[in-house]
Design goal:
- The protein has one domain: Proton glutamate symport protein, CATH 1.10.3860.
- The chain is built from 16 helices and no strands.
- The two termini are 38 Å apart.
- The chain has 417 residues and is mainly alpha-helical.
- The radius of gyration is 21 Å and the shape is globular.
- Helix 2 (33-69) runs parallel beside helix 6 and helix 11 (299-312) runs antiparallel to helix 16.
- The longest helix is centred in the middle third of the chain and has 44 residues, at 179-222.
- Bound molecules: aspartic acid (ASP).
- The site of aspartic acid has 16 residues, from helix 14 and helix 16.
């Protein structure tokens, strides 16, 4: 028997990822900046093509999910289950992060003067300051207020995904309740969704090239020099993420009645794309394809759970923020009392919800957690050097968490129907 299309696709992406990493190391060694610059457009084109599909896909898929759900009650039931799943798994992630960082203690005894802490760039510093000044409550309120679009077309044009989701939910519910008047729109959205999926499958053929270029450029620019000083910290984050990844795989296997490895394999193209792009939003089109094609999740579940998950469900980011903040506390010798750890637990869970699904967002919302426990924002400078690399790992877990969410929500939906 020949390899399935999915297995072949996954194999090509994996080869591209490994080859890109090796090539990146060679470029780093020879400081071949010209080659890096000429590689960058290839990765950028891949990301742009993925982004091109986000708005039409989110708009049409949420709308069609609601229409296919058949009633506002069904929508409410799926919404509640999705949110419950996001909260439970995020809490597990942060808890795991806290346990791991307290056992490994990567920041204890660290000579912070050996770390670069060359300070934050001006734009990052501004983002961090304003995020920390806003505080948790205002940030959460901000997320809520910002979710309501004043102008849906502006939201679509500027890719404000949460706003597009909210508009789409309103439109979908209106269509449900006015079936006859909405027939033409349903036909349009159905067609938009189907054609977007066709385009995704085309773009996926380019994934190996895009991923090769993205990996090579990131590794060539980051190198592994910072790893020795921050190796223990990186180890703590990656061990925490791996443990959470395993927990998610077992949850999926339990609810989907498939082997954990089978679930991981099915989601691999999405995870590898997440790894190389560091963006759950850019990965969304591929996540959709994987869940529907490889996991056999019903369209209506994937259409609803994934766009929402990509925007607000970030297990990897939440875990990373808790480890990073405790690491900073350990490195500066600050108060690591249980009370502070409880504050970190709560704020990291919520700050991750507020993080945008783009590269580096977790680093910015981490300032909320630091401020909540009174740690210095300068601490971010300590971990900056390895943030790009860790972003790859945490985004991978974020996307896997979204995939697992679809099977969990679907299994509970079936049970209650
Ligand atoms: N890059 C992550 C994502 O898109 C967010 C983060 O920075 O943690 O899921």
């Amino acid at each position: 028997m020949g390899e399935t299309k999915n297995a072949k696709e996954t194999k090509h992406i994996l080869i591209a990822l490994v080859a890109g990493t090796i090539f990146g190391l060679i470029l780093y060694h020879y400081q071949a900046t010209d080659v890096v610059e000429s590689l960058k457009p290839v990765g950028e084109i891949f990301i742009k093509l993925l982004k091109m599909l986000i708005t039409p896909l989110v708009l049409a898929s949420i709308f069609m999910a609601i229409v296919n759900l058949g009633s506002p009650e069904e929508l409410g039931s799926m919404g509640v289950k999705s949110i419950a799943y996001y909260f439970v798994t995020t809490a597990i992630a942060v808890l795991l992060g806290l346990v791991v960082v307290n056992i490994i203690q990567p920041g204890v005894g660290l000579d912070i003067s050996t770390l670069s802490s060359g300070g934050l760039s001006e734009s990052l510093n501004q983002k961090v300051q304003s995020s920390s000044e806003t505080g948790l409550l205002k940030t959460m309120m901000g997320v809520l207020m910002d979710a309501i679009p004043e102008n849906p077309f502006e939201a679509m044009a500027n890719m404000k995904i949460l706003q597009v989701i909210v508009f789409s939910i309103f439109l979908g519910v209106a269509a449900l309740l006015n079936r006859k008047a909405s027939e033409p729109l349903i036909g349009f959205m159905d067609s938009l969704e189907t054609l977007s999926m066709v385009l995704i499958h085309w773009i996926m053929k380019l994934a190996p090239y895009g991923i090769f270029a993205l990996m090579a450029a990131v590794i060539a620019e980051t190198g592994f020099d910072a790893l020795s000083a921050l190796g223990k910290y990186m180890g703590a984050v990656i061990i925490g993420l791996t443990l959470h990844f395993i927990v998610l795989a077992f949850i999926a296997s339990w609810r989907h009645k498939a082997s954990p490895l089978g679930v991981i394999k099915a989601c691999l193209p999405a995870m590898l794309t997440a790894f190389s792009t560091s963006s759950s939003a850019s990965t969304l089109p591929i996540t959709m394809a994987c869940v529907e094609d490889n996991l056999g999740v019903q369209k209506k579940t994937a259409q609803f759970v994934l766009p929402l998950g990509a925007t607000i469900n970030m297990d990897g980011t939440a875990l990373y923020e808790s480890v990073a903040v405790i690491f900073i506390g350990q490195a500066y010798g600050l108060d690591l009392s249980i009370a502070n750890q409880v504050i970190i637990f709560m704020t990291a869970s919520l700050a991750a919800v507020g993080a945008a699904a783009i590269p580096g967002a977790g680093l910015v919302t981490m300032s909320i957690v630091l401020t909540a426990v009174g740690y210095p924002l300068d601490g971010i400078g300590l971990i900056l050097a390895v943030d790009r690399l860790l972003d790859m790992f945490r985004t991978c877990v974020n996307v896997f968490g979204d995939c697992v969410g679809t099977v969990v929500v679907e299994s509970f939906e079936k049970k209650s129907s």
